[in-house]
What does this fold into?
Amino acid sequence: MRELQTRPGTGASNKGEQRVLQILNGAKEILIRDGYRGLTLRAVAAECGISVGNITYYYRHKADLLRDLAHRVFDGYAAEFTRIRDASTGNTRDEFEAVLRFIFQDLGTRETTVFFPELWALANHEDYAGEAVNEIYAAERQLFEELIARLNPRLPPLRVKLLALHISASIEGHTMFVGAGKTWARQRFELGEILVQNALNLVMQDAPD
Amino acid sequence: MRELQTRPGTGASNKGEQRVLQILNGAKEILIRDGYRGLTLRAVAAECGISVGNITYYYRHKADLLRDLAHRVFDGYAAEFTRIRDASTGNTRDEFEAVLRFIFQDLGTRETTVFFPELWALANHEDYAGEAVNEIYAAERQLFEELIARLNPRLPPLRVKLLALHISASIEGHTMFVGAGKTWARQRFELGEILVQNALNLVMQDAPD
Amino acid sequence: MRELQTRPGTGASNKGEQRVLQILNGAKEILIRDGYRGLTLRAVAAECGISVGNITYYYRHKADLLRDLAHRVFDGYAAEFTRIRDASTGNTRDEFEAVLRFIFQDLGTRETTVFFPELWALANHEDYAGEAVNEIYAAERQLFEELIARLNPRLPPLRVKLLALHISASIEGHTMFVGAGKTWARQRFELGEILVQNALNLVMQDAPD
Amino acid sequence: MRELQTRPGTGASNKGEQRVLQILNGAKEILIRDGYRGLTLRAVAAECGISVGNITYYYRHKADLLRDLAHRVFDGYAAEFTRIRDASTGNTRDEFEAVLRFIFQDLGTRETTVFFPELWALANHEDYAGEAVNEIYAAERQLFEELIARLNPRLPPLRVKLLALHISASIEGHTMFVGAGKTWARQRFELGEILVQNALNLVMQDAPD
DNA sequence: AATGAATGAGCGTTCATTCAT
DNA sequence: TATGAATGAACGCTCATTCAT
It folds into this structure.
């Protein structure tokens, strides 16, 4: 588990640990409900029913809290990927499709619809956000790469990497269109199937030069 | 040409028109350099070497300025699409590839890399941003749809729409990966070719149920 | 006629004179409609369909405009009082009642309801407003004093003055209660009759010590 | 006691309570000295020797502060009325005269002279001010009504209400004439006696139709 | 561990006023 | 005479952060 960005010496006790989790959950709730602009310390404090001072007791700077928040989201996906990997039935193709479908349909949750664009935008100006983005998608691609290499063993490693990136990017790009409340949200399933079929074709038909 | 959101009676004179353009350019510059959080009226004023009051003289509300800014970007792409359509050589496939390559490689400009994620994030909280996003991509998809329908006339209209959306989304999703300064920027060309080939396959092989 | 507070050299021409009147009328309209807080140069300009610069061409300072505006209201009442005096039928009691009723019922016009409290408040901080208040009520009291002295010739002059002031103040005090839109507006007539009867009693029964 | 309009959670401690009182006193001081136009958060902060942020810490909106300020004035008068009612000697006429004299002579305090006209003017534009005005005078009239009904039990209830209103309005109307620093301030006592006698006559002689 | 008070910088916005044309 | 551009000061308000308790 990653080291928290809390003030040294805080969050050690059981109570403190609980409090930190409560703060992170509250912050996530607000980010999803009100967007990044609504994510103020006052709002988080109100959400958690604690004082602003108590938040700054754990997180000296707001950016520290955001860092931990980003990592928590990352950890959530990493755990999901691990779960998928562990639940492997041996049928790589089924597994690949399941992963793609999971990630694609997850775009429809309000959490993902709101959180990721904020993170992408932030990544252009804040280092910690850029790092978080890198980590999250690196983990996603690693899973893709394993599956792609198994599906088409003749692909050279770099090609595998590029295909994984392409598929990952293609999925993410749908966020603004099929996300929660977006214009094409009702076609999310259909578009997901197009993506899955297309990704399969790409991986299977692709041949080394 | 769209109506500007400036106060009625302002920006009529030559000087005023110039000033409005200067303000919009300054705002764009700052948005790209410092992100949405840095885009304050004071920053724009400083960038333009004018007073804050002078900005609010033209734009009563910051949102009015942002609206115009979004539409300017939109107009830029719309003009480009028109240019491409007008320059049609008759070879639909070449044209389709050219369009895809243009849009994909454009992701590598710092302007696009930074501006669009900001717009996507904003679209979740601000109506005008959501409308701007919708308009921009609707124009892009319209061009795609024309080309796809010509490439594979047997596709039903809805299928054409979905394929256009899928391709458009897939391109945009690469922004965070192959954009200016991003980790995979050096593979932008190669990834672009993967996308182009894949899109062509998708359009040509796709068959009505 | 009072001298206007316009810039020296302006408002001389026929056109200029008309413009000044237009500005004053516009300002009054806005003051009545939107209150003192809404009375900005921009609002007046919009109301008149001219530019802000054109207003400041005539009135260098906003206070100059307000001064003229206050005096115009004063002139309006002064003219009304003159008219009443000139229309005298010889029956002093009828005339007295008519004057009281006119002034009291005038409290119900939105103009009076809004304008006078603003003037009273302003009078505590701005000299010109204090002077305007003094002038307006001095003219009103002069009319009252004439009528009271005729109604009860045995009253000494100072007593006449005090009674006139008392009656004038009593009327004005009803503004906040029976003015346009106020809680007791529907009882305006009935309260006016109470005041008239009471004032008559006071004047007729009052005896020198 | 009325609930304060301060932010929830603030002003709970002794220090906070003191601070809120200090802010209200400072605001009152400025309103009296400089009028409503001078009553800015910055001015109040300077008066109290604290930061603007500290005021908005307690009062999120300026209107909240003004509301509390109006209610404090109201509470002051309400307490005075209660005191008078409790000190009742049994002689209703004496009591009635005492109340009228108290209110009338109070017009001579700078606080009353300045504060109330501001409130009347504000009442035309701001709801909270209108409500405050209504509450203050409703309390005053209630006291009047009790006394009037006792002085002349034959008066029907509505008539009592109208007479109370008339007397209240007549008193208030003297503010601009006999208030602190006003032209007729030196005749305040004499005019007060005229009002008292006149009010007594009105109440005693008035007969149901 | 937690609170509530307090700050200071900065925000978008309003507006009277100046001025070149 | 009239306009539109431009300014600068001030406004109410937000918010991350500090700190004494």
In short: Residues 40-42, 52-53, 56, 60-62 of chain C lie near DNA strand E (CB under 10 Å from a C1'). Chain C touches chain B through one residue (CB under 8 Å). The domain at 66-204 of chain C is CATH 1.10.357.10 (Tetracycline Repressor; domain 2).
